[in-house]
Write a structure and sequence with these properties.
single chain; 104 residues; mainly alpha; Serine Threonine Protein Phosphatase 5, Tetratricopeptide repeat; 6 helices
């Protein structure tokens, strides 16, 4: 909880910082608070669609909570964002997650 409190404090000073929101969402994932994590990931990607790293984590979260079609949609959006950013590493991870889910 200490990390969460620190991140929330930082977010008070920089409420629109996608890095801080992403870090906070990952902390919620670790705690098993899927709803709080999902809300933050979706907020990040709505306001900052170029924040490529959040697509993978949101997709995996959606897979875990039994929403595979939603996960596929976010993976597709993430692949488009990764292509636009020229981020081949993220594109490969997103494509792999997408393919695994499609085949699964």
């Amino acid at each position: 909880m200490e990390r969460i409190d620190k991140l929330k404090t930082f977010l008070q000073a920089s409420p629109d910082d996608p890095f801080l929101k992403h870090a906070l969402a990952l902390e919620y994932v670790k705690l098993g608070d899927e709803n709080a994590a999902r809300k933050l990931f979706e907020e990040i990607l709505t306001r900052n669609p170029g924040y490529v790293g959040s697509y993978y984590h949101l997709g995996k979260l959606l897979e875990r909570v039994g929403e595979p079609n939603e996960a596929l949609g976010w993976y597709e959006k993430g692949m488009a964002a990764a292509r636009a950013a020229g981020d081949r590493h993220a594109l490969g991870e997103l494509q792999g997650a997408y393919d695994d889910l499609e085949e699964g």
